[in-house]
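Quick note —
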Amino acid sequence: MIICSCERISDRDIHAAIDWMRASDTAAIITPGKIYRALGKSPNCGGCIKLFVASMRSNSNLEVPAELRGLRGTQSIRSESDEGRHQSHRISEQGTAG
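Predicted structure written out below.
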């Protein structure tokens, strides 16, 4: 079945690319973009993306590596106002008058 008519990609092409990527790297995160690149193509209109992803999900080799599962649920210790900096790294407002 043709999934992407712009680039003439079939469900068999998608499954073959997923199987090839999984065989070459068992820890790879497989995305639609990586599949397009593996096939030597690029997305055009994006109208096929829902069907493309559905076809991807039907492949048993698409499984996320065990060590990467559950990362989405972890929360950052930093607050939104922290910006990742310690307070000691901020420029003091005192003594800047001049």
